[in-house]
Description:
alpha+beta, 5-stranded mixed beta sheet, 2 helices, 24% helix
Amino acid sequence: MTSERLDASVRGRVQGVGYRVFALREAMGLGLAGWVANQVDGSVRIVAEGPRPDLEALLARLREGPPGGWVDDVLTRWEPARGLEGTFRIESRHHRGD
Length: 98
């Protein structure tokens, strides 16, 4: 199956509520590569690569979010995969992309 890339920015109460750990668990459970990072504007950005059905499953979970937070909006962009390697990870600071 062909891999794709999901680039999502999640807005709402998503910092300080465990959202990055939530996204990490969900993405790792689906076997996706990529990263999650807090952004300076208060959003959380997720970049993940893998099969489209797995990315869509991740997106559905990202729209729900963890207990204690809430999601107002998820801005998404779909692209061809760029070949991210390794497992999914948390970036500790604002990530400018890869």
